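Cross-check.
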Amino acid sequence: MKKFLLCCLCAVAATAFMPACSNDDDTERVPVQIDKQNDTAILLVTFGSTWPEPHKTYKAQMADFRKAFPDADIYLSFTSELCMNRWYAETGEEYVAPDIWLMELGKAGYKNIYVQSLHVIPGQEYTILSESYVNGFRFRNDERIERGELTVKLGEALLTDAQSIEAVARVLVDNFREQLTRGEAVAFMGHGNPASKYYYANKSYEDIEVAMQAYGKEAYDNDKIFVGTVDYDDMLIDSVIEKLQANGCTKVSLHPLMSIAGDHANNDMAGDKEEGAPMEEQSWKIQIADAGIEVVETQCKGLGDYSAINTVWINHLKEAILSVEEE
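Predicted model, tokenized:
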């Protein structure tokens, strides 16, 4: 688990301030296929995944955005070079970094280019998207923007305001109505950022835990709903186990609090026991069971698998577009 996390962090660093496909071989195989049907382009941006199921999630998310924005052309981009290269090597299917997409969309003559983050919290990944990719593209097209020939705007990450947090909390809690009605607990695994400067983003996990507990109590008379992360020191698995034990929980179901259910969900959350690995490196399922709490169910579903949650992302983009129109 730690090895994979390190790889992911290295991939983030490598893609932060440079094109993802930077060598000659990669440049030759960048098939940015633009089908310009409208004056508006929407670029959805996510970290990416090498697992098959998340790619079904991405397609479903794109379909939801097409329904919401019928007069726009929808595209999808990865920020992780590691995910792009591994997925291409395994399947031959190409994903392209946001800087290349934005450059090509600009060349294609779109009048409006809206970028929508598919990140859960406004942390490191969202900051890279905003400051490096979007602002970098805006800077290079400043004269076109000043002349009114081009509009560029970024929509916010999922859990960025109280209304969005409340909406997502209700969807996730209702998904476990049967378990909560039986008096069982539910725990969610987010990602989190280790750096202290992203404290405001990590607070989103604390806020949604409070919102889910309040709604769980109201709707099902059960507030045994907890949130932990794989990378935020204050909310690691130890804190989840402590909360389960402190609340007398004997049974719990697990669910990712991530946009897709990839490596973290399938291995770090729901993985089987790794022989020879110390307990602190085992999955949540194994560590919780070792603490004497029965893991009833592990649901490997991403937030993007819920149309109602995709609507929250869609609303963020609508708010971004409205802000442009009001300027």
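The chain has two domains: 12-158+306-326, 162-258+263-299. The longest helix spans residues 199-220. Passed to J.P. for a second look.
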